[in-house]
Amino acid sequence: MAASIVESGEDAFRKIFKFYKRRNPPPDFTDVIDFSKDVLSNKIVPAKLDPAAVSDVEAAKVGLKPVIDWRAFGLQGYPGFIFISNPFLLGSRPFWVRQCLKTYPQKPNVCNLDMHMPPSDTQDIWGKSIHALSCPPSGKREQKSLLERLRWVTLGYHYNWDSKTYCAKNYTPFPTDLHLLSFQITAACGFPGFNAEAGILNYYRSDSSLGIHVDESELDHSRPLLSFSFGQSAIFLLGGTCRQDPPTAMYMHNGDVMVMSGQSRLLYHAVPRIVPAPQGHTILEMEGCSLASSLQDNTVVERMSKQDWEVCSKYMQTSRVNVTVRQVLGPGQSFPETPLIKPRTDAGQLAGYHNEPADRESERMRKSRSCDSVDTEE
Ligand code: SIN
Question: For residue 360, is pLDDT > 60?
């Protein structure tokens, strides 16, 4: 049992993070909550949604099932935490994956590759990668495509990894489709008028992880934080307000959505491990580009070309993409004139993103950032 490995006085979160990250011997996953199965655990409670807040037509427009059909859960001890087990209509997830791989990495959005490559090289990450991703492996060791070297993309107010702040000047328009998707999901969860202003996409390979942190840089913590998972599965750890609180482990599968709000908005969390999606879970290749028959006209979710679908499908066979969407400012709020430099408190120190390097390039990237890395967690 994961919880039993914690000895008194130790950092409970770190112990459990290490437990699930361990490769040899692999950990015991029996304590990991799986919301996609029939959940019997007494930790799990049904979450109350507001189906009247989003019409079936509005939901379908962004590729979502009617709210009445969503399987939404809460967790005992985590008020404000809502887990929605894949609320997407069959055939719409490939569209969102394509947005994450083809559209959102485009300029003016910012990505890790911009830090050490000229803009001309990062102008068309998708176009420069599709040949490599469409070809069968030649047997020789090939250089990784740009898409395979992508680790993060920021949207809207671009998160500054060094100062751990957002600022008015570093802003480009937030994607309207993702804004609408976030608006509908948060409305159904009881947060009407959510204004998606910043997004962080994390691209995980099978050996990636994300260190222990709190998302506290947004100025208005009364607004929820939304998280979308696509592709391979992950173990997600949700802790408490201090590192001594042992976290709860749960799977995030393809299409799952999490809402962290209220008392759960500022909790420690981390992703210690990517795990293959279980058999029977519809990964992209099974949804196909032609299966989008449930999609209506006049939706933001467009049908995709066979080539786009093949590239997305191949990439996602070994990858996971997570998108977090945040409202940074409350109504009428503006950024302080002198940016707040966060003191290095316990929470501040750990409020960074630490996608573990899968190659030398991202290792350099990680070192150039001032956030803690997963290495410090071990
Ligand atoms: C995740 O990848 O599921 C978590 C992302 C985050 O905490 O920012």
Answer: no
Say which amino acid occupies 228: F
CA 312 from chain centre, in angstroms, equals 17
Mean pLDDT of the chain: 85
pLDDT score recorded for residue 285: 55
Cα(251)–Cα(211) distance, integer angstroms? 16
Using DSSP's 3-state secondary structure scheme, residue 86 falls into coil
pLDDT in tens, 337-351: 876 665 433 333 323
- Mutation test residue for ligand 1: of 32, 250, 269, 274, the one with most atoms within 8 Å of CB: 269
Number of residues written out for the chain: 378
> So what's the pLDDT on residue 237?
98
Instruction: Output the CA–CA distances (angstroms, integers) from residue 132 to 84, 113, 136, 257, 314, in the order listed.
Output: 35, 18, 8, 31, 11
C-beta separation of 66 from 84 below 8 A: no
Its CATH architecture, for the domain 3-365, is Sandwich (2.60)
Domain limits of the chain?
A: 3-365
| 178 to 165, 175, 199, 262: CA distances (angstroms) | 22, 6, 9, 22
Q: Which atom of ligand 1 is nearest to the CA of 202?
A: 2
User: Which residues make beta-bridge pairs with 319?
Assistant: 205
**For 294-315, what is each residue's pLDDT tens digit?**
556 678 998 888 899 999 999 9
DSSP assignment string, 211-223: EEE----SS-TTS
Q: Cα(332) to centroid of ligand 1, in Å?
A: 28
Terminal Cα distance for the chain, rounded: 20
| CA atoms of 113 and 165, how far apart (whole Å) | 20
Assigned token pair, 47: 């979450």
Six token digits for residue 144: 């990784």
Q: Distance between CA atoms of 108 and 295, rounded to whole angstroms?
A: 29
- Over range 321-333, report the average pLDDT: 96
Residues with CB under 6 A from ligand 1: 202, 210, 227, 229, 234, 236, 252, 269, 271, 322, 324
Assign 20 a pLDDT band (cuts: 50, 70, 90).
very high
pTM of the shown model: 0.88
